[in-house]
Amino acid sequence: MPELLRTSLDRLPLGFRVLCRQFMLRVIDLEALSIEADVTGYLGQFAGVAIMVSAVHTLIAWTYFAPMNLETRIAFQCHFEQYLIATMMLVVGIFAVVSWDAIFPDKRDIMVLSPLPVTTRSILFAKLASSGALLGLAILALNCLCGIAWPFVLGISAGFINGFLRTLAAYWFTMIAASAFLYGSVLTIQGLSSWLLPRKFFLRLSAFLQVAALALLLSVYFLQGTITSLAALAAPQNRRLLAASPSFWFFALFNQVRGTLPDNLAWLANRAWLGLGLAVTGAAGSMLLCYLRTMRKTVEEPDLVPGARSSQWSIPFCGRLQTAILEFSIRSLLRSRQHRVVLAFYLGAGFAIALLCIKQEGSLLAYPRTLSPGLLIATFAMMCFAVIGLRSVYALPISLTANWVLRTTQLRSSQQYIAATRRSLLLYAVLPVWMISAALALLYRPLPQVAAHLVILALLGFILADLNLLGFYKVPFTCSYLPGKSNIQFRFWIFILAFVPLTLLSAIRELEILSHPDQYTFIVLALIAIAAALRLFNRNQSRSAVLYFEELPEDVLTSLRLISFPSRSSGTVEQP
Predict the structure, then answer these.
(1) Contact residues for 230 (Cβ-Cβ < 8 A; gap 6+)
(2) What DSSP string describes 449-514?
(3) What pLDDT does residue 171 have?
């Protein structure tokens, strides 16, 4: 099979294959990467995370054989089918948002490829092939194991052909259809907005659309509930929710293709068919309009538009250098679409988890509330995601070609640059989240315990900021990026297996401590000591630190053991 696939690929035109490869690698901005970057290894880490998630889903499938009564088994089946479809749509939605500019031509494509003997049709098909290949790999990685295990446990009781094979076909068709619907919807919105709007307005709107789409995906995934029976699906009070939720559409489509959907729910599956048709047609039409009518607009209209003249003012922060770095950081966040999307992903995940924790306690409008672990977990999650997200964004350069300006103008000690970076992390991540948490905490009682928790949250913010700056001897947005160095797959599972249980246990323990002044005083003093120790350690390290602007892998020396050494006992030469 691999040889047949390779032979088929070799028959494609060389230019088409080269374009496909380049477009696939450009899911990540190549101009921001280090010269030693391994893009394929970086994408492989994401694939590894998806495969491990699929393995976990497969292990859960075997619990389906646990002793259950019929009602519990049906509820478990409905819940997990909806969860798998919603997870698939979330992954595809994140892929569509991250690769926002990958399918449509940009100015670089036109300026580089137009002088070459490459037709517009070839560029379009190469873009489609590269995006389709990456999307297919994402679907395959997330379902490679559970895509066989779940159809087996759901359909084997009805026989091999009418049960397992039909459920297997229904499962994969539903996952592909749901992915095509969501990806096509994003392409339709993007293509129509680029065709209808002038390019400068489209570029400004595009950034907000990315952030809004990401926030919507995360919010719906975390906040939307599940319906655990077909009878509840047919209930009149749930009709409005079902009509507005695409994940329920494709859940009905799965059961329709499988042959287990009641007739009174056929309208729900018909919405999935209609949505899929509209999304695919809209994506195809918007791409044709973009490639046929807006490519000239892309060349003629500038990407960067001079801002309107206004009075320039700034707030001084302990010297001109710190003021400059703080302003450079905030302006980079406001102007760069790539950085806003990455930061929005972290913030959206943190705030979605916070809303989920608070929603579990009842209505969001209930007032006043009794202080509970839900608020503590919500504030911890928001603080952690905000600090870690901003620290991750700092590692991505805004413009590598402009780094020489910062290198040649380094007239102060590295300690002052690192201190400014720490201050920006506190100002733009810790302080806003603490203020939001304080406003949210006003809904809870008793107020003395709420104030005590806010003190602990502030100390946690200082500790997280210094922890994330250990060894970070960079100016924000100025160092090239080396993908793969962060080992995403290991960090993901550390977060799942360590951070989540630790946060839950810490929240429960803190709630007990808040009612005991002696224990609370001890915890606060311990946190102050940890924060002070980290601060002093980072400050001492920064005195001898050297700022670096190019991310390089660590040197690895490998011995081939080809040298012979004389033996001490006999004087002869031994070959190792």
Answers:
(1) 74, 78, 255, 262, 265
(2) HHHHHHHHHHHHHHHHHHHHTTT--S-TT-S-B-TTTT-HHHHHHHIIIIIHHHHHHHHHHHHHHT
(3) 95
Angle (deg, nearest 10), helices 120-143 and 166-196: 140
**In angstroms, rounded to a whole number, what is the distance separating the alpha carbons of residues 33 and 305?**
26
DSSP 554: P
Give the span between the Cα atoms of 144 and 74, in whole angstroms.
Answer: 24
Distance CA 504, CA 536 (A): 30
Q: If you average pLDDT over each of 2-11, 32-41, 171-180, 558-567, which comes out highest?
A: 171-180
**Cα 370 to Cα 515: distance, rounded to the nearest angstrom:** 13
Which tokens belong to 561? 């053991």
Distance CA 561, CA 504 (A): 51
Average pLDDT, the chain: 80
Give whole-number Cα distances, 367 to 73, 191, 361, 472, in Å. Answer: 38, 44, 12, 43
CA separation for the pair 383, 346 (Å, rounded):
11
The answer to whether the CB of 490 falls within 8 A of the CB of 450 is: no
- Dihedral (CA of 472, 333, 499, 51) sign: negative
The pair of structure tokens assigned to 356 is 């989920």
Mean pLDDT calculated for residue range 326-332: 86
The amino acid occupying position 533 is A
Q: What does residue 167 show for φ and ψ, rounded to 5 degrees? A: -65, -40
How far apart (Å, rounded) are the C-alpha atoms in residues 380 and 67? 38
Q: Which residue has the higher pLDDT, 318 or 471?
A: 471
According to DSSP, the residues that pair with 481 across neighbouring strands are 33
Cα separation of 35 and 392, whole Å?
Answer: 19
CA distance 546 to 248: 54
Q: What is the tens place of the pLDDT at every residue in 181-222?
A: 999 999 898 888 878 887 777 777 877 788 788 888 888 888
H or E stretch covering 266: helix 266-293
How deeply is 117 buried, as exposed, middle or buried, from its count of CB atoms within 10 A (0-12, 13-18, 19+)? exposed
- Structure-block tokens of residue 435: 């203020």
Given pLDDT bands bounded at 50, 70 and 90, which one contains residue 168?
very high
Nearest alpha-carbon partner for 171 in 196, 145, 193, 190 = 145
Q: What angle in degrees, to the nearest 10, is found between the helix axes of 373-394 and 337-359?
A: 170
Q: Which amino acid is at 91?
A: V
Are 398 and 336 spatial neighbours (Cβ–Cβ below 8 Å)?
A: yes
Q: What tokens were used for 191?
A: 């293509």
C-alpha–C-alpha distance, residues 127 and 120, integer Å:
11
- The H-assigned helical ranges of 158-259 are 166-196, 199-223, 230-233, 239-244, 246-258
Summarize the chain as % helix, strand, coil (round to 5).
Answer: 75, 0, 25
Tokens coding 507: 């929240």
Q: Which two tokens stand for residue 378?
A: 């919500």
Q: What's phi and psi for 105, nearest 5 deg?
A: -70, 140
Which of 279, 16, 235 has its CA nearest to residue 122?
16
